[in-house]
Amino acid sequence: MTDPFDINRRNWDERTAIHTRDTNGDYMLNRFRAGEDALSAIEVAELGDIRGKRVLHLQCHIGRDTLCLVRRGATVTGLDFSPAALEVARRLSDETGLKADFVEGTVDQAPALTPGPFDLVFTTWGTICWLPDMKKWAETIAAVLAPGGELYFADAHPTFTVMEEFDGRLVPTYDFQTPVDRPLQFANETTYTGDPTIMSHRSTREWIHSLSAVLGGLIDAGLTITMFREHEVLPWRGLPSLVPASERLWRLADGVPRMPLSYSVRAKKGS
Hints:
The chain has 271 residues and is α/β, with parallel strands linked by helices.
């Protein structure tokens, strides 16, 4: 098997079962079922009022955040390439009574599978590293947005994603922009939640995207950047040396030179 999407889909299908068990509560599924909001503090501060809006959630995984958007009053469609994840998403929707549509497909298939138009495209946390081309990503978003519609996007910062940790030190290890045809190859034994389950399908293919690739792609697709923020926190423990900043956010330890760990963007389609 050589197709990066097929390799990654097998990995994500297997992760789904681990994330659904949620044995350590990282996905806070029981708390979500009980009515707690599962969006990160960054999203909560920036998302704004979405009541009555038509929202497309790209790369929605098991649908927890999709249904958080429903709780906020939006009409939401979730798109993901993992059939196993979407099965869980639909089950979670039934369990909570929060109704959303879930569609199987890759991001570049969105204009055909979920054409909208949408008032908001929402995509956050660990999404674009699975996509090879930010130009195509941005064009897809522009295609499904209604005139005046917006993108809300948040993810790990490329300043941080180029780093690896060696003996407690952060060392620049990867190029800040991964070539489309030469993805990074990883084989992590476990998923990112801290669950110790050893996976069978460990191989992944991933890309690091520069800020200029992301922002430039959106601008070239005809969108106007209306917000860009860098954050010193991350909603998962991206490297072992990160320490808690709050219950669900991580930061660099005291004494380590500051750098942005994540960033967020809003972009608007012209009316």
